[in-house]
């Protein structure tokens, strides 16, 4: 059993749901955000069959030989920042991670804007494209619903974010494969300790476990709970709330002996949006503010450059 709460967000997905139902969910979300900044989301409405298709297609992709996977390597994704990276290719806190993965974002036509453009999908696994393109809008809906609960919990109107700086959210989606690793090498992590940059992360993980969360009293596991996503607060929401809603460090080590897959979906402010302080609401002063000026896109670019320094130099973003 996990120490992190499971919150059924179904009322937040209903446009006409009675206020008291939404309010109770929002209160649970607010409490979880203040406690650990981590909770599980159930009642999210994403079909289990879609999740199964996504998982199966991803396993087929990662089982392909490396040269085939390299046909969609990030180097070919250019400034759009999409595609495959091999084990050790991504740095967290300056160290290579024991994972490989694929970066995706909202599917867009080619253009000059960094982190925007078409996704790279593997020709050998056509069903991956279908599953990802269905998953992104399904998760965007979940992201908006959780943000409506967060808005209510902050004393703001339910649609504060949805009609504001997440009206056209920045969506990043990744699929990670953690091969079974040297289980207890103290220096080797699937993902090293870090916090997430933005507003919300919604993580689908398979049954293998391995995600750990740093609490005031030490590291705890966030084990898989069937039918849920793990939701955690990013740095931006932490800053906006003056640290009341926590962006909590977490890390991954795959000790299962199996191939672990995870699917983090990042739900963040629009690329061109500025992120002003939250208004006075519900009798509460939200005196936090983000520590950057300019747009969310500029902030994100400065972060991503640290994770893939080589690519960043090549692409001259
Ligand atoms: O793979 C996981 O379980 C967590 C991944 C993660 O923390 C991230 O991508 O930010
Ligand atoms: Fe993370």
TrEMBL record:
<keyword id="KW-0408">Iron</keyword>
<dbReference type="GO" id="GO:0016491">
    <property type="term" value="F:oxidoreductase activity"/>
</dbReference>
<dbReference type="InterPro" id="IPR026992">
    <property type="entry name" value="DIOX_N"/>
</dbReference>
<dbReference type="InterPro" id="IPR044861">
    <property type="entry name" value="IPNS-like_FE2OG_OXY"/>
</dbReference>
<dbReference type="Pfam" id="PF14226">
    <property type="entry name" value="DIOX_N"/>
</dbReference>
<keyword id="KW-0479">Metal-binding</keyword>
<comment type="pathway">
    <text>Antibiotic biosynthesis.</text>
</comment>
<dbReference type="InterPro" id="IPR005123">
    <property type="entry name" value="Oxoglu/Fe-dep_dioxygenase_dom"/>
</dbReference>
<dbReference type="GO" id="GO:0046872">
    <property type="term" value="F:metal ion binding"/>
</dbReference>
<protein>
    <submittedName>
        <fullName>Iron oxidase</fullName>
    </submittedName>
</protein>
<comment type="similarity">
    <text>Belongs to the iron/ascorbate-dependent oxidoreductase family.</text>
</comment>
<dbReference type="GO" id="GO:0017000">
    <property type="term" value="P:antibiotic biosynthetic process"/>
</dbReference>
<keyword id="KW-0045">Antibiotic biosynthesis</keyword>
<dbReference type="InterPro" id="IPR050231">
    <property type="entry name" value="Iron_ascorbate_oxido_reductase"/>
</dbReference>
<feature type="domain" description="Fe2OG dioxygenase">
    <location>
        <begin position="168"/>
        <end position="269"/>
    </location>
</feature>
<dbReference type="Pfam" id="PF03171">
    <property type="entry name" value="2OG-FeII_Oxy"/>
</dbReference>
<keyword id="KW-0560">Oxidoreductase</keyword>
<dbReference type="InterPro" id="IPR027443">
    <property type="entry name" value="IPNS-like_sf"/>
</dbReference>
């Amino acid at each position: 059993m996990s120490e992190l709460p499971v919150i059924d967000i179904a009322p937040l997905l209903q446009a006409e749901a009675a206020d008291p139902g939404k309010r109770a969910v929002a209160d649970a979300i607010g409490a979880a955000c203040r406690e650990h900044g981590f909770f599980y989301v159930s009642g999210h409405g994403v079909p289990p069959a879609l999740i199964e298709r996504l998982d199966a297609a991803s396993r087929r992709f990662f089982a392909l030989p490396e040269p085939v996977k390299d046909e969609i390597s990030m180097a070919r994704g250019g400034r759009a920042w999409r595609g495959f990276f091999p084990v050790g290719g991504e740095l967290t806190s300056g160290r290579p991670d024991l994972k490989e993965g694929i970066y995706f974002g909202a599917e867009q036509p080619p253009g000059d804007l960094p982190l925007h453009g078409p996704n790279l999908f593997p020709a050998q696994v056509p069903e991956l494209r279908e599953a990802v393109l269905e998953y992104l809008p399904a998760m965007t809906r979940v992201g908006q619903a959780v943000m409506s609960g967060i808005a209510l919990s902050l004393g703001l109107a339910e649609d504060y974010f949805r009609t504001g700086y997440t009206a056209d959210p920045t969506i990043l989606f990744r699929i990670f494969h953690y091969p079974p690793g040297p289980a207890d090498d103290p220096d080797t992590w699937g993902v090293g300790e870090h916090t997430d940059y933005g507003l919300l992360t919604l993580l689908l993980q398979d049954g293998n476990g391995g995600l750990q969360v740093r609490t005031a009293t030490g590291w705890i596991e966030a084990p898989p709970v069937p039918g849920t996503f793990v939701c955690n607060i990013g740095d931006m929401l932490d800053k906006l709330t003056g640290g009341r809603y926590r962006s909590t460090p977490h890390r991954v080590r795959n000790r299962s002996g199996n191939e672990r897959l995870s699917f983090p979906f990042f739900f963040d402010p629009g690329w061109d949006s500025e992120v002003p302080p939250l208004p006075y609401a519900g009798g509460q002063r939200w005196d936090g503010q983000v520590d950057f000026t300019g747009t969310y896109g500029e902030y994100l670019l400065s972060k991503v450059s640290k994770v893939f320094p080589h690519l960043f130099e090549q692409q001259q973003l």
